[in-house]
Amino acid sequence: MIDHAHDLACVRDATERLLNAVAQLDNASLAESSRLPGWSRGHVLAHLARNADALVNVLEGRPMYASAEARDADIDDGAARPLETQLADLRESAERFRAAGDAPADWTRTVELRNGVTDDAARVPFRRWGEVELHHVDLGIGYDLEDLPAEFLERETDFLTRRFSGNPDVPATRVTDGTHEWTTGRPADKPEITVTGTPADLLGWLAGRRDGSALTTDGEALPKLPPL
């Protein structure tokens, strides 16, 4: 059972960590490349602010974005803003998301995200938590996958293995950190391959943040995952 109130609290904690870290930057560092190809740190921050507003739209029954083109344009337009403006936008958009999450609502309802994807409303706070945590890492400012909360690492790994589950292009795969295990990929009576690693390295591979070179397999090549 998803505890949306718990996840909303985790979003607030993650957002505060992000804001405190970004406040230590300067305008020049915002223009530098992030870990995401083609995006500066300013692009990442603009995306995070607009994603908060997009998820408010989702919770309030509006389209997540007006269009893919409008989404991309908003990120590009916001990328070059100075640090003070970026921080204010992050704080204000986070507050709008907090207010939407705190409003009385039926959290069992189905909501629509991008590209026709639907989900339970109760899962939206966790999706926002993932955006904040992973894009904090993407900034490349000293917060890495190993710094992510253990609960988030486990739950995001579960989320991503479910996302690839049933994909015919991914071999039936057992994923384990030595304590927890998940299955993903195409249906099969038993896994074709087992992938083992630390929680951070497994998540990095599943989320496209690491190449998987730190992982071990049982003699088979590491599966190539489709883009998220």
Automatic annotation (TrEMBL):
Keyword Phosphoprotein: no
Classification via InterPro entries: DinB/YfiT-like, Maleyloyr_isom, MDMPI_C-term_domain, MDMPI_metal-binding, SCP2_sterol-bd_dom_sf
Keyword match Amino-acid biosynthesis: no
An MF annotation (GO) of this entry: isomerase activity
SUPFAM superfamilies: DinB/YfiT-like putative metalloenzymes, SCP-like
Boundaries of every Mycothiol-dependent maleylpyruvate isomerase metal-binding domain copy: 11-139
Name assigned to this protein: Maleylpyruvate isomerase family mycothiol-dependent enzyme
